[in-house]
Amino acid sequence: MAMRAARGLSVLFLLFFAWGSVAQATEARRVVTSDNSDYFGFDLRSDQNVSLDQCKTTCLGDPACRAFTYNPKAKWCFLKSDYNTLKPFKGAVAGKVVNIDGDLDIGAPPDLAFFPAWMADQAQQYRNRLTGPAYTKPTEGLTALREAAEQASLTGDHRSAMQKYEAFVSVLPDDGQLWFELAQETLAVQSSANSAEASTLPANATSAGFNAYKLLRTTKTRAEALALLGDGLDRRDLARPALQAYEASLA
Questions:
Q1: What tens digit of pLDDT does each residue of 130-139 get?
Q2: Tell me: domain 117-250, CATH 3.40.190.170, correct?
Q3: Fold of 30-99
Q4: Rounded to 10 degrees, what is the CA torsion of 178, 39, 65, 169?
């Protein structure tokens, strides 16, 4: 009898810890929704006769789900294995899963006195080029695109990684972490001898680093962006602003 009770308690403990792990994983993710929008394609499966909250919960509980489109009128939840550009769709609700890092939001970044206005304009122009109609947007899912960029970086193909992060940023230009990763990969690219890349790559890296700084909102990530900005400025032989960027990253 005692042995049976002990086994029962063991099962309960295992179930408790398993439930706790699932709950913790779920809490580490949340859903960001957009009204009158749709994430087209990448269909995983669909659930009928569910509420928006149920649709969110189902997606969060499925590791394969990264987005969804919900039709309130039909009460139909379309789960997605990935997502790309947000499309307008009247009446629908689009949602995507984002990770929660738990770090404190420290608010808008202060102006950088050492960063000249013409470089800030250059950073805006770089952003405009990547988000403008002339830039070809990626067709693959963004999760797949990130994985491809990370794999290219791991294998030392920094040029390919840079290009993939540029494509990623063209879809999500307000993601500071993407700009940071783009700056990192751009700095790692070896420019061709006697080519214009000797100046354009450091300029693009600085622009990406500055855009990252403006968007990142935690103490750690903003400090990392400032240090990376220092690397870009140093690559452009701007020693004093580079030093000031490094100093700001340590403040």
A1: 999 999 999 9
A2: no
A3: Hepatocyte Growth Factor (3.50.4)
A4: -10
